[in-house]
Amino acid sequence: MIKNLENIHHVAIYLRISQEKKGENVETLENHRQILIEFCEEHGFTYEEFGEVISGGKSEITQRVALKRLLDNIEKYDAIACFELTRISRNGLISQTVKQYCIDYDKPILTPYQSYDLANSETDRLLFDVGSMISSHEHSTIGKRSKANKMQMSKAGLHVSGNVPFGYKRNNETKKLEIDEEAAPTIRYIFQLHSEGYGSFKIRDILNNEGYKSATGKAFNLPSIKRIIRNPAYKGTLIFNNRKKIKRNGKFEYDNVETITVENAHPAIIPPDVWDKANQDRESRALKSISIREKPAIKSGVTLLKDLIFCGVCGRKMIIRKDTKSSTGYTLKKCEYLLPNGEKCPNCGKKLDAVIARVLTGLTKYADDLSQMEEQLRKNNASDLNEKNQLKLNQIDKAIMEVEQKQKNLIELAMEGLFSHEEIREKKQELVKRMDELKAKREEVINSINSLSVEEEIELIQEKRKLILSLREDMDQEYGNELLKRFIKKIHFTRVIPEDILKRSTRNSERQNYPFNIKFEFFD
């Protein structure tokens, strides 16, 4: 029963559908939205919407971006409106967190059929607790039942979880995989190229150059090629991993409790003996490749720039390889990743000694800049330093607001059907990760305001400058690499050679001496 609503004028509408529950989609979300809007309009409420697509069983409030934003701004609203209590959460911890906010700020929860005055009614608190307990128990029971059902079905060779592998389609009646005759030739071609000695990089380039498309209709990328070659589904084997979610060092991980393997569960696209040989070859090639890659071994050593060079075009980490054909040491390999448009990254490589020389020259200049910074700091006071930090804080707050707006826009785009559930999930995870990074940075800056003295800042600069001046080309490479990683986050390398020069011989002087740029990204 809806109780007295006279003091309620502006409410926060909370919308949630599960990313895991079958039958729930953007249409479900829109239906709930319309019911709540009609409810608000009927009672003359103004409202603001908070929506997200996420499982109600999530136990971390930070994972519930929209709900957390609502709670952070709860004083702006007279009540929280939701379709039903289970839409707030199916996790007891989250439910109790919401309840406590409502009690502390004296905000009721409204549904189209029932209101809960948690701050003033013991009966409503009891009803809320009972409902939350039942929801939590139901979520847990359904999860266990679903897992047991999936395991039993997997033992019968049925495809019950995960995406359908490219090259197959799932028969919804038999729940078994069947060969997709339109896509299967691409899988066979990949294994054929692999058997001819081509590696994943080359296979990717051949497929893209010849116009083949992946399961998403886009160009093939390197991880997709590797996943296809490793996937035992292509030899007719079904694998189901029963995993247990556990938290370690503040992060959730999945431990594999049991692996169910069923041979001949569905038709094979690749004969089992061919698949087995391909993966034996893959492992053999990997071991051979490791022997020539940069590694902390006595024979090959560690280079000064290990794990520090990143592509200035696509942003990926670049590879440093031991040059086995000459005595010139190491080579920074050309970038072999794909750009978002499917084209190969044009960033070329360079002999590593030339890159190291440029890095050391750049760091010498940076050391001079540090000297100027030290001199300037000696003229300043703590208030000037905090003013600088305050400017940083303002920029971070601006970035946080932009991410929050993107999160708000995402659910609106979902309602308009512009993204699939998978795309929504991926975009949401990207935004959550970015928000966590910004908040961590914000906390770091806040802690530094009014706590870091000018003397301490000068000491940090002096220590950094001392490290830089101790670097030299003939020093122990591993020790030098450790020093660099103390104050350098990334070194961005860019060398895009024009096509007409790139077509010339590798011995051509103009091609060999084509310039490159480096850009440092230092830790604050």
TrEMBL record:
<feature type="coiled-coil region">
    <location>
        <begin position="386"/>
        <end position="455"/>
    </location>
</feature>
<dbReference type="Pfam" id="PF13408">
    <property type="entry name" value="Zn_ribbon_recom"/>
</dbReference>
<dbReference type="InterPro" id="IPR050639">
    <property type="entry name" value="SSR_resolvase"/>
</dbReference>
<protein>
    <recommendedName>
        <fullName>Recombinase domain-containing protein</fullName>
    </recommendedName>
</protein>
<dbReference type="InterPro" id="IPR006119">
    <property type="entry name" value="Resolv_N"/>
</dbReference>
<feature type="domain" description="Recombinase">
    <location>
        <begin position="165"/>
        <end position="288"/>
    </location>
</feature>
<dbReference type="GO" id="GO:0003677">
    <property type="term" value="F:DNA binding"/>
</dbReference>
<dbReference type="Pfam" id="PF00239">
    <property type="entry name" value="Resolvase"/>
</dbReference>
<dbReference type="InterPro" id="IPR025827">
    <property type="entry name" value="Zn_ribbon_recom_dom"/>
</dbReference>
<dbReference type="InterPro" id="IPR038109">
    <property type="entry name" value="DNA_bind_recomb_sf"/>
</dbReference>
<dbReference type="InterPro" id="IPR011109">
    <property type="entry name" value="DNA_bind_recombinase_dom"/>
</dbReference>
<dbReference type="Pfam" id="PF07508">
    <property type="entry name" value="Recombinase"/>
</dbReference>
<dbReference type="GO" id="GO:0000150">
    <property type="term" value="F:DNA strand exchange activity"/>
</dbReference>
<keyword id="KW-0175">Coiled coil</keyword>
<dbReference type="InterPro" id="IPR036162">
    <property type="entry name" value="Resolvase-like_N_sf"/>
</dbReference>
